[in-house]
Design a protein that fits this description.
Number of domains: 1
Order of helices and strands: HHHHH
Number of strands: 0
Number of helices: 5
Radius of gyration: 20 Å
Length: 174
């Protein structure tokens, strides 16, 4: 049994991206940001290893860049997983419910997740603003860059959940 919402996500993706049969790649903001962060992370770590063991001057900035890139990969990856409705879910009890209560419970759960994600995004924005005056020790990158990844990741999850809810309402709750 497919968890509630996955069909809606697939249908919404087909409408938004224009995929009649799902053969083209689905590209989203979350996917692009996650992959850019991953490329930066891999390049920084490879350069750190090469500079430590090949050259005589190890790169001291690698830890800062890889930490920031890792945070972006984690939060934007979570947003991409949420967009695709691939987060872990347990439907042991809900699978036994009739269709009506299952739809209501799925909508209530999605509303809770949307509110939670938007709240965490707001907290992340507050932290980004508060930490804008603090800088990393080597490259003097504002620490707010780290918190912007958290903020955008949770904002994307909240907005995608809201998008999914609105799509369900337009479809008539099925």
């Amino acid at each position: 049994m497919t968890p509630p919402g996955r069909e809606a996500v697939a249908e919404l993706d087909r409408k938004l991206v224009g995929e009649p049969d799902g053969t083209r790649w689905r590209v989203s903001f979350e996917h692009v940001a996650m992959n850019i962060g991953f490329v930066v992370l891999v390049c920084a770590i490879v350069w750190g290893v090469l500079s430590r063991y090949v050259t005589e001057a190890p790169a001291t900035w690698v830890e800062e860049v890889s930490s920031i890139a890792f945070a972006w990969v984690v939060f934007m990856g979570a947003a991409e997983a949420h967009r695709r409705a691939k987060h872990v879910s347990v439907d042991l009890i809900t699978s036994f419910l009739p269709a009506g209560p299952r739809v209501v419970l799925a909508a209530a759960t999605e509303i809770f997740v949307v509110l939670y994600c938007l709240y965490v995004a707001w907290l992340g924005a507050q932290q980004a603003i508060a930490s804008n005056a603090a800088y990393t020790s080597m490259l003097h990158i504002p620490l707010s860059v780290l918190y912007v990844g958290l903020t955008l990741g949770f904002l994307a999850m909240g907005l995608r959940g809201l998008q999914r809810l609105l799509h369900q309402v337009r479809r008539g709750g099925s």
